[in-house]
Amino acid sequence: MRLTHTQESMAAAIEDQWLAAAMETGPADRAAAEEGVREAYRLASAEPPERIYWFGSPRAAAAAAALLSGPVDPIPEAPGTTSPPPAVAPSGAAAPQAGAGPGSSAVPPAGAELGLGAASLAGAGPGLGADSEAVRPPVGAGPGQEIPEWFAEAQAELRRQGWTPGARAGRSMRGLVRTAPWAAARKAALVALGADGWAQLSAAAGRRSWPLVMDMVAGRLRSRLSEDLAAELPAAGPAVLDAVYGQHDGAWLSTFEAAARVCPEADLMTNLAGLARVARHSGWWWAFERVAVLSERPVTLARDNVGRLHRGEGPAMEFTDGYGLWAWRGMPIPSDLAAELPSLTVDRVRRETNAEIRRVMLEHFGYERYLSEAGATQINSDETGTLWLLHLPGDEPLVMVEVINSTPEPDGTSRVYWLRVPPQTRSAREGVAWTFGLTEQEYQPLIQT
Fold it and tell me: Please, which domain of life does this record's source organism belong to (predicted)?
């Protein structure tokens, strides 16, 4: 099958809609998303989840998913609370605290108590703080680690939404509600469109969205989330693999919706309708036999002109519970660096030993400003401009050409531009020629503007 130009235009328009959904920020439409979840289960011939939990970020949702499915034990509740005992003791978990009972939503606050391990509490009584040096971390945290405050809050949120410690989510339903309908739809699309038609349609409806959504946003979020969980709550890390990407699934749903418009008789979107509804209204989510765990969309999503996560004043992607990703032109950066960027000095940039971090600093500080304030050396000057050199410790030299716009501005002044060129450049002309992909000998402009 060969698509017409009209069909390709239609496919691109559908991709625009899904791109907008994938980048949407702000509160989820929880009612619509929950209806989508139930529809996804129904289309998979499964009973809908008995309960749907909501969290402010994928991090909290992933931790909740790990808590509900077993790899992470709940934090034991503080003495004197009346929480119910677990219905099923988690693997490696302590017995419930004596005196615990139904009706409590109390969870230990962040602080010293959060470092008390479930196993250690099995034999502990009142005055737990006295044994703090002997406690072991609960299952889910690494040896010697304290439970992170955000995990305590995630557990507390589960309790507020009606979860009883020990109640389990059942088996993962991701394969049934997400993978299987995707595979069936793809197989049917190939039959309906043929390999060439499917490739053409995939390009028309997915050429932009895959790199913009999956590579530059969802992939970054997945990597960062995996790293954060590995560092702070290792047993929750595999939960990331079970995530359904919600709004970011638009990167592939666009192709199937376009295919369904081209071949309505193939009925390609019917079994994807639930997934599509969730994707239009929610962030990442987790599907289990008895429960589903959904997360909100980000409240902030800042990107540069080519779509990379990019922000110097705060997280480039931030969620309602404070979880966020800091990035500069797509490169993840530590949150403390982001706070430092507005007050950078030449000395601070010079002292930075990590070349990638220093590059971020230089881009934010401004190469030309740094050359000027750091005492760069002029190594050449000709009719094309001036070549400057500055050695950077542990990195290649910073070499830039200072050029003056030949066309004056309306006020009679001439704008100055700075062009970073390869460190081996030895003349301004060679540097300017390099920016055009030419050698110094080949660069012979008839008119300069």
Answer: Bacteria
**E strand or H helix at 295, and its extent?**
strand 291-295
State in Å, rounded, how far the first CA of the chain is from the last one.
49
CA dist., res. 435 & res. 443, Å (int): 10
What whole-number distance in Å separates Cα of residue 43 and Cα of residue 48?
10
Element of type H or E holding 287: strand 285-287
Question: Dmax over Cα atoms in the chain, in whole Å?
Answer: 89
Please state, in angstroms and rounded to a whole number, the distance separating the CA atoms of residues 259 and 263: 6
Q: Which amino acid belongs to residue 125? A: G
H/E element holding 40? helix 30-43
Pairing of strands 291-295, 285-287: antiparallel
- Which residue shows structure tokens 């000027």? 372
The residues, ordered by sequence, that sit 6+ positions from 97 with a Cβ below 8 Å of its Cβ are: 76, 77, 79, 81, 83, 85, 121
Using an 8 Å Cβ cutoff, are 256 and 268 in contact?
yes
The pLDDT value recorded for residue 95 is 35
Task: Give tens-digit pLDDT for 309-336.
Answer: 999 888 999 999 999 999 988 988 888 8
What's the angle, vertex CA 364, arms to CA 362 and CA 370, rounded to 5?
A: 45
Mean pLDDT score across all residues of the chain: 84
Report the distance separating Cα 128 and Cα 113, nearest Å: 8
Cα separation, 372 vs 377, in Å, equals 9
Least Cα distance to 243 among 225, 230, 220 occurs for 225
Do 385 and 284 lie in one domain? The reply is no
Per the structure, the complete domain to which residue 408 belongs is given by 375-436
Q: 168 and 288, same structural domain?
A: yes
For residue 85, is pLDDT > 50?
no
Q: Are strands 317-318 and 324-325 parallel, antiparallel or unpaired?
A: antiparallel
DSSP-derived pairing of the beta strands 416-420 and 398-404: antiparallel
**For residue 142, what pLDDT is reported?**
60
Q: Tell me if 142 is assigned to some domain.
A: no
Q: Is residue 366 part of a domain?
A: no
